[in-house]
Amino acid sequence: MNAPAYRADPPEARYLVALDGVALIFHRPSGLTHILAPPAPQILEALAEGEAEPAALLERLRRDYDFGDSDDLEAALEARLAELETSGLVWRA
Amino acid sequence: MKHEFRVTVGPVGFRIGSDWKRPLDQLSALYADYPAPDIPDFTVRLFAQRPWRRFIRPSVMIGGDYMLPDAAPLSLAHGLLAAEMGMNLQMALGQRRYLLLHASAVERDGRALLMTGHSGAGKSTLSALLGERGWRFMGDEFALIDLDSGALHAFPRLVSLKNEAIAVMEGEVQSDRLGPLMRDTPKGDIRHLRPPKEAVARMREPAKPALLLFPRFGHAVDIRKVGEAEIFVRLTQASTNYVALGEAGFDALSSLVRTIPTRAVDYPDTESAVASVERLWAELAE
Fold first, then answer.
1. B-chain residues within 8 Å CB-CB of A22?
2. Full residue range of the structural domain in which residue B230 is found
3. What is the predicted pLDDT for the residue at B56?
């Protein structure tokens, strides 16, 4: 069974302001303000290339970030995606 | 309505209609130095709960352009408080031209000190006290942030002194600047204070926000830095119209948070608070 693919609004749907270590995001389609800690803003940025399943998304993130040898990266990414889904910033394609 | 009074506070014009004359007489005495608007922005109505109750045990209901359906009536002796609450309510629910922060403000050299915190934190008393000690009083309840320029506009309405603050200010100002003492209102004892003449004469002059403090009364002296994300969250909680303003509000608030030096200040008494404010202003104000 394939893992679900996730999508996000294009970057122009978000107004992002960096505040000491977190990202303040105004989500234009909903009018809601979010405060996101890493890696959530980076996940949204990676989804700008288009929808992706967690494994493919992880590959995109690996291009820019060094994750070391940790095994549970995909599970951690899925947990962050679930949080972003709850906040309405990503959804299942 | 039977009786009407008009007043301009800062950039905002009010029309207050009332079933009774007395609260309006008290208002017009305390707002004697304020101009009347040609076209009011907001209307407040003070009306009898039932028609016959205008005469028998009169109860004042607060209404206007914007209403809270479950607002409890006040006794007529508290009519002045009802008018002030009505004006605040119109601002809180209806103001769209400025980002509204539930904060007090004073000015010096064109730069503003903003103070915000929970009810009882002392922001109102501190602003009133500083207004008698060389600062220009800009408001004890609402700070209006310009959505384009980020400038702070004054809203120097009557200062609503509560409980212990009444004695503090009775020792500081002439008695003719104080309104009637209203005991046992829903907010405790209340006495209104007329801001200094200069605060009213210069109420159209905006100022640049230069220092933000979160005062907290009743603790040993302590001064702490506050992270930007926490400042942002606290200010969204202190704003009555942040959500309604959408992206313009986000822009104004995030710009303010990124540029203004901020500290949390605990204080055991007002004199120590004034000393902390002066010291922080000298060190940090931009």
1. 229
2. 98-157+195-284
3. 62
